Task: inverse folding
């Protein structure tokens, strides 16, 4: 007796998936409605988190020191959860990995669902089911039976003319009994849903493209007489040569205007005036006028006279009591705050034309020094000389690059077109059967399509015309 045990067969629970079968299963997973629903819910949750939780301004996300200062500003609101939320990317939700991943998967799911529907829609449009049973004419949502005096051939011709006059396509069904017709209109309208789905994908692609390759700096500032680097790998720098603000007699703003010169890699590429509704565009980057204020022009030099900092410091923040305006700049290992009396405030510690320099270690909150300096004067702390040159105006701009905008615009247009096609030009179908009857012919018409007042009116017009009284309902009532 021999032991004939086969060892070359795989166990029953081992499934050998070919690449084609694996691709089919992945495709089936993405066009599954449950998958789409889960992804939509996930996107809704992430979007709500992005709306409900404060979002770090784009201009400080890539600046560790600025981002750290922003976290400290929101810490009283989120308390011990601040660092956890930051680590999870909640404060930069719309550019976070979870949001981009869910957006990408949702786009794939929408494409898979659309691709899965296209063959059926194409078959319905080009190879419709023309033959129906007799019971269909008894149970269709719209159905009528009309007795006419003409023989079947003449009755069929009349029905055909009436439907063609209303721009219906007519197909003959060779199967009996009697003479059978299939009529439809707007047969490609159902593709509007596919167009709308593809449009939504284009919008998602635009969001992804902008999130990945675009930027928006809503806190870009430049002081009159200085030049500021745009950054973000653009090679651009913006010089503010003058700023003007005008007001109506009642004090309401009339005009804000920034005279600027734009440089790319050191070469001038534009010189213009930016206003609130008149931005500067260059190379896909927009400069929009947003705000303005007063800046302190400051110079910082090392013991050898080397310039460490020479620029305007916008005093764009105000203390909670409203008494002081302040701004900040950084030096290696240091954070320097420049503080002046707020506009219209008289403070005994800081007189008009004076500024106080408060110096902290970078990332720390221990005060190193606090020095009050008059305009045009200097003070030296740990070998670094700080000079308060003068006050100047600064202009605040929103600088952005939105490479996904064309995708969004095209997607938006297609979304409107696809939605209109699906909603207002529904696929309208009518089946007709003409049979001999006593004294002429019997014409039966039926349609199973959804309620549509326009189509129902057309249906009744055809029935009324057949009965010899246009617009009058004839025969049986609706089921």
Result:
């Amino acid at each position: 007796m021999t032991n004939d045990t086969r060892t070359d067969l795989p166990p029953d629970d081992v499934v050998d998936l070919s690449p084609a079968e694996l691709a089919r299963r992945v495709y089936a997973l993405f066009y599954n409605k449950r998958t789409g629903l889960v992804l939509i819910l996930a996107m809704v949750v992430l979007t709500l988190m992005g709306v409900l939780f404060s979002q770090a301004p784009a201009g400080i996300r890539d600046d560790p020191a600025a981002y750290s200062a922003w976290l400290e500003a929101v810490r009283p609101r989120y308390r011990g959860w601040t660092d956890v939320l930051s680590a999870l990317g909640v404060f930069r939700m719309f550019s976070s990995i979870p949001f981009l991943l869910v957006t990408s998967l949702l786009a794939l799911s929408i494409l898979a669902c659309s691709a899965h529907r296209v063959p059926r829609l194409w078959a319905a449009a080009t190879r419709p089911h023309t033959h129906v049973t007799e019971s269909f004419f008894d149970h269709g949502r719209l159905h009528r039976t009309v007795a006419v005096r003409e023989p079947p051939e003449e009755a069929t011709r009349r029905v055909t003319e009436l439907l063609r006059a209303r721009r219906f396509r007519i197909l003959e069904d060779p199967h009996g009994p009697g003479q059978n017709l299939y009529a439809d209109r707007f047969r490609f309208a159902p593709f509007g849903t596919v167009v709308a789905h593809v449009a939504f994908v284009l919008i998602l692609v635009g969001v992804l493209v902008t999130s990945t390759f675009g930027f928006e700096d809503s806190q870009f500032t430049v002081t009159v007489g200085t030049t500021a680097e745009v950054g973000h790998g653009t090679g651009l720098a913006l010089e503010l040569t003058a700023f003007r603000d005008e007001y109506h007699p009642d004090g309401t703003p009339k005009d804000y205007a920034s005279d600027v010169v734009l440089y790319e890699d050191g070469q001038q590429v534009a010189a213009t005036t930016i206003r609130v509704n008149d931005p500067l565009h260059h190379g896909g980057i927009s400069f929009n006028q947003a705000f303005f204020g007063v800046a302190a022009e400051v110079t910082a030099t090392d013991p050898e006279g080397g310039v460490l900092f020479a620029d305007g410091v916008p005093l764009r923040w105000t203390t909670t009591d409203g008494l002081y305006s302040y701004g900040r700049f950084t030096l290696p290992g240091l954070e320097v705050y420049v503080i002046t009396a707020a506009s219209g405030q008289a403070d005994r510690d800081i007189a008009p034309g004076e500024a106080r320099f408060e110096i902290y270690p970078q990332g720390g909150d221990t005060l190193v020094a606090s020095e009050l300096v008059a305009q045009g004067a200097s003070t030296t702390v740990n070998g670094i000389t700080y000079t308060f040159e003068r006050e100047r105006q600064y202009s605040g701009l929103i600088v952005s690059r939105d490479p996904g905008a064309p995708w969004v615009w095209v997607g938006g247009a297609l979304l409107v077109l696809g939605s209109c096609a699906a909603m207002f030009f529904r696929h309208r179908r009518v089946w007709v059967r003409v049979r001999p009857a006593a004294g002429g012919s019997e014409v039966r018409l039926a349609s199973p399509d959804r309620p549509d007042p326009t189509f129902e009116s057309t249906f009744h017009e055809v029935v009324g015309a057949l009965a010899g009284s246009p617009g009058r309902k004839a025969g049986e009532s609706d089921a």
